[in-house]
Specification:
The chain is α/β, with parallel strands linked by helices and 253 residues long. It contains seven helices and nine strands; from the N terminus they run ββααβαβααβαβαβββ.
């Protein structure tokens, strides 16, 4: 989940440093969710220092499974070993299985991401994130072009900032684009979209919400079929008395 500031924006980007919805007594709140935060921000904001201050002394949390807790420290060490990557907060040297997972914040430059996108944009599952610092809009656009398909993208901006081009690019890589909010809750309603371009999902349809049933539907066309072999919902007489579309027109019973 890229969290993308427009120009000079300062905000707490991570659920584990937010004073709001996260309760570390619950394992799924230690960023063991389907929306993984990455923060892309412009240079000179002081964001990293504020984030380090906000995330220090946070408690560890149990991971969902032993396999996940074993993989988390390995992932941290892999990221920490990459060139031009700085640990802003926390430590990559930890035993998540024995002691629980502790939050770690990494930082790097957009130029470094463009040089090794596969390594730096690889997800490390758990309470960690990567801060990516860009110098201009061209560099920001280039980095976003490297971000794989995602469930959500969030824009935090100051009033009056022009983010039209950014939003257009984000719409191509995420299934849900949010503004000045956090993509934590999923409401079961008609407007919900919990899906995104591959590899975020393998379906065009949401997995949560009123239209989620479409994930399990497969269209079949019956050409010149006799009425006797058709499902009652498809027969001309409409014996079920249901609303239908006939030649694209809505026909009510």
């Amino acid at each position: 989940m890229p969290i993308l500031p427009v120009a000079d924006f300062l905000a707490m980007a991570l659920p584990f440093v937010s004073p709001g919805p996260c309760d570390y007594r619950r394992p799924w709140d230690s960023i063991q969710r389907s929306r993984k935060p990455v923060s892309i921000r412009s240079t000179g904001t002081g964001f990293a220092a504020q984030l380090a201050e906000a995330s220090k002394d946070k408690p560890t949390a149990a991971m969902l499974t032993s396999r996940i807790s074993d993989a988390y420290p390995e992932g941290l060490r892999n990221v920490a070993s990459l060139p031009d990557v700085t640990i802003v907060s926390g430590s990559a040297d930890q035993d998540a299985t024995l002691n629980g997972a502790a939050p770690v914040v990494f930082s790097t430059s957009a130029a470094n991401v463009l040089e090794r996108p596969d390594e730096l944009l690889e997800e490390c599952f758990g309470p960690t994130t990567m801060l990516i610092e860009y110098s201009d809009q061209e560099e920001l656009s280039a980095v976003l072009a490297m971000v794989p398909g995602s469930l959500t993208a969030t824009v935090h901006a100051q009033p009056g900032e022009d983010g039209a081009d950014l939003v257009e690019q984000l719409s191509g890589l995420a299934g849900r684009v949010l503004f000045d909010g956090w993509p934590t809750g999923l409401a079961v309603n008609w407007a919900q979209q919990h899906g995104g371009p591959y590899p975020a999902t393998t379906s065009l349809f949401t997995s949560v919400g009123a239209t989620a049933v479409r994930r399990f539907q497969r269209p079949v066309a019956y050409q010149d079929a006799p009425e006797t072999v058709l499902h009652p919902a498809l027969r001309e007489s409409n014996p079920l008395g249901i609303p239908r579309r006939v030649d694209g027109e809505l026909v009510l019973p």
